[in-house]
Amino acid sequence: MKPETQKLLDRTFNFGVGCLKFISLLPKNSAYNVIKNQLAKSSTSIGANYEEAQAAESRKDFSHKIGIASKEVRESHYWLRIIKAISDNNVDYDKLNYLINEALKLKKIFTSIKLSSQK
User: Fold this and answer.
1) Residue 50 sits in a domain of what CATH number?
2) Domain total in the chain
3) Please, are residues 24 and 36 in contact by the beta-carbon 8 Å criterion?
4) Which segments of the chain have a pLDDT < 70?
5) What is the CA radius of gyration of the chain?
6) Which is nearest to 6 in space by CA: 62, 61, 50?
7) Which of 29, 44, 62, 106 has the maximal Cβ count within 10 Å?
8) Could you tell me which of 2, 102, 118 has the C-alpha nearest to residue 65?
9) Residues of the domain holding 67
């Protein structure tokens, strides 16, 4: 496995774990319930799909899994932005901003991989 592949596997894993830890710190009220569930699923799906892509049966299968990871990181970015929009100083903004920025970076990476895999 290439070092950059392992680095991205670790990065997506850490992003998912970071989101789960962040979710556990969010206020416990009805406004956050759906968001917590959706962010938990989408943020952990990124790494799971990238991991699956490493065992792809074909270039088309690889591209498909990367496409799913790309969609999931976009969804995660969306939910993180929602949290930022509805939070009234009751969240760790440093952690939230870190996760938003990491989601942006991962979006760019997966878009690039997807485009490259389709050539």
Assistant:
1) 1.20.1440.60
2) 1
3) no
4) none
5) 15
6) 50
7) 106
8) 118
9) 3-117
**Token digits of residue 74:** 């976009």
Contact 50, 69 (CB under 8 A): yes
Are 43 and 94 in contact by the 8 Å Cβ rule? The answer is no
HSE-CB at 84 with a 13 A cutoff on CA atoms is 15
| CA 30 to chain CA centroid, nearest Å | 23
Secondary structure of 62-98 as H, E, C letters:
HHHHHHHHHHHHHHHHHHHHHHHHHCCCCCCHHHHHH
pTM: 0.94
**Both structure tokens of 112:** 């690039």
How does pLDDT run across 71-88, given as a tens digit for each residue? 999 999 999 999 999 998
